[in-house]
Amino acid sequence: GTMGALYWQLNDIWPAPTWASIEFGGKWKILHSFARHFYDNLLVSPYLDNNNIKVSLVRDDYYGKLDFDLSVKVYDWSQNRPIYEHKSRHSSDSFSAQVIYDISLLELHRVAKCSHIDCHWYWVLSVEVTN
């Protein structure tokens, strides 16, 4: 057997506010721009787990060992440059899943000198393939 997924309601056949990801004339809706990455081999997933902010990395590829940098940037809503940045180096193997960042919400508020109400976080993953 095989595994797969069915993409339902790909396109509209007339103008209407629907769940389809392509308009009736062929223009992509915002959903379709995201849908092309639904099945990527590299998934970076930031999430809140109780009072901890975690970032998980899931790899589903054959590239072998992968070295990468994870940058966590905290931005104040009133400016366009980060008020706090933390960079860490990681590595992972093919077909693996791991938590690559884990910090308590209170600790991040303390080091960034900003709460989640006043600021927003941005994660940047820089990947380097090695042989």
Shape: globular
Number of helices: 2
What's the level 1 CATH class of the largest domain? Mainly Beta
For the sheet with most strands, the description reads: 3 strands, antiparallel
Low-confidence stretches: none
Strand order of the largest sheet: 1-2-5
Averaged pLDDT, please?
86
Q: CATH superfamily assignment of the largest domain? A: Immunoglobulins
What is the CA-based Rg, rounded? 19 Å
Distance between the termini: 32 Å
Summing up helix and strand content along with how strands pair, one would put the structural category as mainly beta
The number of E-state strands comes to 6
- How much of the sequence lies in strands comes to 35-45%
InterPro entries: Beta-mannosidase_GH2, GH
Protein name: Beta-mannosidase
GO molecular function, one term: beta-mannosidase activity
GO biological process, one term: glycoprotein catabolic process
Provide an overview of this structure:
- The chain folds into 2 domains: 1-39, no CATH class; 41-126, Immunoglobulins (Immunoglobulin-like, Sandwich).
- The protein has 2 helices and 6 strands.
- It is globular, with a radius of gyration of 19 Å.
- The chain is mainly beta and 131 residues long.
- The protein has helices spanning 30-35, 105-112, and strands spanning 42-49, 52-59, 66-76, 82-92, 96-104, 119-129.
Summarize the structure in short.
This is Beta-mannosidase. By secondary structure, the protein is mainly β. It has helices at 30-35, 105-112; strands at 42-49, 52-59, 66-76, 82-92, 96-104, 119-129.
